[in-house]
Amino acid sequence: MTTVQKIKEIEDEMVMTQKNKATSYHLGLLKAKLAKLRRELIDPKASGGGGGGLGFDVARTGIASVGFVGFPSVGKSTLMTKLTGTYSEVAEYAFTTLTTVPGTVKVHGAPIQILDLPGIIEGAADGKGRGKQVIAVARTCNLIFIVLDVLKPLGDKRIIEGELEGFGIRLNKKPPNISVKKKDKGGIAISNTVPLTNLDQDEVKAILAEYKMSNCDITIREPNATPEDLIDVIEGNRVYIPAIYVLNKIDAISIEELDLLYKIPNSVPVSSREWMNIDELLDVMWEKLNLVRVYTKPRGLAPDYSEPVILRNGKSSVEDFCNAIHKEIAKQLKYALVWGSSAKHARGQKVGLEHILEDEDVVCIYKK
Ligand SMILES: Nc1nc2c(ncn2[C@@H]2O[C@H](COP(=O)(O)OP(=O)(O)OP(=O)(O)O)[C@@H](O)[C@H]2O)c(=O)[nH]1
Ligand SMILES: [K+]
Ligand SMILES: [Mg+2]
């Protein structure tokens, strides 16, 4: 039996098994088995070429990258060409784009790399078409645009999400607040800091048994933790990436239909071809990228608002700011004066290297 067939068999069995107290251990085992089989599928050693592949890896430029994922002919290349001004072939037939096509769009002064990708189809993560290489590129992006055709958005959305999830990508989700500490002896200790609604002890035990973990401390700190969350933490190779559902071709539907589409969370309806609602798309994209603009103020002069230094949220200390300008500056720093939302007072605050900057702060560096 191939890995794909084994996966199918387990999925079928899970559908047939109703969850209750008597079956939860068995279901826990099945879920862990499934995760192990999926790992085999995406592991290049086990299946021959899960990586970028020839022509798929492109030089990374800009402060962050956005990958376009979707079925063929939903309008990915039309959007990419219009956003960046870089040509990517557009045509009515499926699989027009055959490899990664990079371009750049500047948003609020930050150069963002856009990666137009070939269309994928159901079964992509299992090795159909170029799906694996496409998803492998998406795995390395800071944001994913899931581009959907408004005429069939929901079915396509579910399939694409399934493909990305099968490849270890978690969309619009935080890493589970679960810790797993392996020990040499002492058996299994499960503790939860909150009551659990989606995970019981039998499931935890079954999953640990399947992974042959007989000595470990498990601490679960969120009420909605699922068996899948625990497996994700044990497997450890998951990536958590924000995503926007770009509902394209709204020029082809009515206003009433458009109102319904707005109910899909994290979605932005647009028409790439007719350039409709692209401003909202750029706003949501900026928000999801979670970048921090810092304006430099030379001593005695006005801040330079035209060329912000762009930092990532979580890496936006004064030290990160200095390093982004020149690697010697942090060593020479006496203090920095900061204005903006991270500063305590409106007249500015004197801070050191460890101070965390926020979006649109103004910084003046004083050297020793
Ligand atoms: N009505 C309408 N048609 C669009 C829109 N955007 C793209 N199209 C059309 O959809 C078709 C496919 O567009 P592409 O940009 O090639 O789609 P793609 O997703 O890059 O396709 P592949 O590279 O084959 O995966 C073309 O005929 C486009 O003109 C839109 O906003 N509205
Ligand atoms: K096409
Ligand atoms: Mg294309």
From TrEMBL:
GO molecular function, one term: GTP binding
UniProt domain TGS: residue ranges: 290-367
InterPro entries on file: Beta-grasp_dom_sf, DRG, G_OBG, GTP-bd, GTP-binding_2, GTP1-OBG_CS, P-loop_NTPase, Small_GTP-bd
Keyword terms, alphabetized: GTP-binding, Nucleotide-binding
Coiled coil among keywords: no
Domain OBG-type G, chain residue ranges per copy: 64-290
Name of protein: Developmentally regulated GTP binding protein 1
Species of origin: Calocera viscosa (strain TUFC12733)
